[in-house]
Amino acid sequence: MSQTHHAHVFEHQVRSDSMPSVEHVRPLAGAARRPIGISRLAVAAVAIAVVALLEAGAWFGAPDIAAGTLLAAVARIVGLVLVIAAIVEFIFAYGVWELRPWATRLGAGATVTALLLTLLSAGRGPSGVHTLSLLLEIGTVWYLLSPRVQEAFRSHAGNGS
User: Fold this and answer.
1) Using CA atoms, how far apart are residues 50 and 28, in angstroms rounded to an integer?
2) Structure pTM?
3) Is residue 52 within 8 Å of 117, Cβ to Cβ?
4) CA pair distance 122, 120, nearest whole angstrom
5) d(C-alpha 56, C-alpha 88), whole Å
6) Backbone angles phi, psi at 100, to 5 degrees
7) Residue 16: which residues within 8 A CB-CB, separation 6 or more?
8) pLDDT tier at 87 (50, 70, 90 boundaries)?
């Protein structure tokens, strides 16, 4: 099939800076109204939450920390904070998916917190999990604070949704 056959999928006007604005994109009936990057952001938030739960498990089940010591108490606290961070990331994923205005602030704070906890957890669990988590967290903060994403949330909030 030719490109012109598929041209009706998304119609948009090109602004002078050649970046399509969120409000100029008209999806097909029944298609999602959020930009694809924001959908990916919600999926990344779920992945960050799952990784935080895996990291929490590494702290709770640390065989190299003697039970009853101060370090064991700290490990339990770090594990608990990671579980709370995972819950907040799940809430953030919902907010991003629904383009809720509060999601950008919650996501930036939660993701920076998860980033700090991931750095604190270095050496616990598989290194691939930490690398994936760091990449997702840095990418999430960068994307979430980008002007186009901020515009998407503002325009959605302005529609009374």
Assistant:
1) 32
2) 0.65
3) yes
4) 6
5) 14
6) -75, 135
7) none
8) very high
Dihedral sign from CA coordinates of 16, 18, 19, 21: positive
* Nearest in space to 54 (alpha carbons), one of 93, 73, 82: 82
Question: Are 4 and 110 a contacting pair, CB within 8 Å?
Answer: no
User: What does the pLDDT look like over 95-150, one tens digit per residue?
Assistant: 989 888 888 888 888 878 878 877 877 766 667 777 887 888 888 888 888 888 88
- Write down the domain spans for the chain: 37-158
Q: Which two tokens stand for residue 47?
A: 């992945």
Query: d(Cα 143, Cα 38) in Å, to the nearest integer?
Result: 9
Q: Which residue has the tokens 């960050």?
A: 48
Tokens 């750095």 found at = 119
Specify the 3-state DSSP secondary structure of 2: coil
Among candidate residues 105, 109, 133, 106, the one with its CA nearest the CA of residue 119: 133
Are 13 and 24 contacting, i.e. CB atoms less than 8 angstroms apart?
Answer: yes
Identify the three-state secondary structure at position 11: strand
- The CA distance from 117 to 111, in Å, is 10
- For the stretch 115-120, contacts whose Cβ atoms lie closer than 8 Å and that sit 24 or more positions apart, written own/partner, are 115/141, 117/52, 117/55, 117/78, 117/81, 117/82, 117/85, 118/51, 118/52, 118/55, 120/78
